[in-house]
Amino acid sequence: MGADTKQLRIRIKSVDSSLHLTKAMGLVASSKIRRANEEMDKSVAYAETLDKMICELASSPECRKSPFIDTGNTGDTKEKKEPRTRLVVIAGDRGLAGGYNANIFRMLKQYPEAEVYPIGRRICDRVEAEFISSESYSAKDAYELSKTMCDDFLAGKFDRLGILCTKYINLMSQEAEIRWILPVSVKGDSVKSGMVFEPDERTVLDSAVPEYVAGMFVAAVRESFACEVAARRIAMDSAEKNAKQMRENLELEYNRARQSSITQEITEIVAGSGK
Predict the structure, then answer these.
(1) Which tens digits make up the pLDDT trace of 36-79?
(2) Which end of the chain is more exposed for a tag (fewer CB within 10 A), N or C?
(3) Is residue 82 part of a domain?
């Protein structure tokens, strides 16, 4: 019986250590949520402005001749080849964030032939690439990657470019998704907003696309990081509740074992004194 109580004490101490860890990580995540959401809102607003401008440019007949534009015309080819795909995959730098990273990896399996450009330690380790932090990813990093992607696209090294990231729905819900950004899709005739482009739409479009792609990268990274922080906060809250419940159960079991041991000792003493 003494061995049982000793093992229970060790388990209770272990659960206490886990409880302190989950509580600390939950507090860290809570402290980052506000700033992460502010950065996400700013970058998403900027990306939406860029998207509006690109859509306005894409509505121009002259711009539809640009190699960056996908008008949806596939020509008279009878056989459609599978497009060569590049994916910029954004995952977290750390784990313990619920299903945040697992959802990204699960969706990535749907594109086994895709060429992957990783952002975040978890995906970098998975594809054995040089580490690029998702938390400290800068606009300069995004523009350098965008320039490379646009140059490779024009050189015909791939057919489409997508961002595999996580969409922020609310604090309790996030979901993995792919945002296709190259080539720029044209859906019908958009309504003219009255913007005037100098020297002409085609020139502005070709120079704006790298900025547009970089803006999409930054927005996706900021939104994904906000999702990671929110997912970690929820996961740590859940882990803390589970640890507290486990500790209560172990303490109850320990008290029962201790009481049983004391009762047995008293019984042995009384039995011995009666002889």
Answers:
(1) 999 999 999 999 999 888 888 887 888 888 889 886 654 444 45
(2) C
(3) yes
